[in-house]
Structures are given as structure tokens and as C-alpha cells.
Design brief:
The chain is mostly helical. It has three helices and no strands. Helix 2 packs across helix 3 (about 45-65). The relative contact order is 0.14.
Amino acid sequence: MGIDKRKARKGAFRIPEATLFAFAFIGGSIGSTLGMFIFKHKTRHWYFKFGMPLIILLQVAFVLALFFSPIKFSFI
């Protein structure tokens, strides 16, 4: 979010919104949400304002579903 904010101020080529959402979806949702409010970037867009926290909730639900699943996962 900080990089895109800097590019917006300079009038440079911007990071596509789909890319910002993709990074959030693959694991950067907490950082994207924090960056959004720290840099005050994309906070006027309702789909960012509500979409990023929704991605966090979906990721937490997914992790909890894996944790409480009867199937045991081992990543070792």
C-alpha cells in the first residue's frame, strides 16, 4: 500500500487493485489492511474498506477449520 501510495503521488504507473487483493488473499491480508490505514490509501473505496477485513476473517476461518478438522495435517 505504501509503494502504491508513493506512486500515486508521483503520478507513476500504479499497482493494479486486483494485484493488491491477490497479495492480501495469498497471506498478506493483515499487512494490507494495516498499510491501508497507516498510509491512508484506498480507504475511500468500499471494496477495500470491507474487502480486506473480510479476507482476514476468511483466512482465520480457514485456519480454524483446518485446526479443528478430524483429518490431521503435518507439514514436516
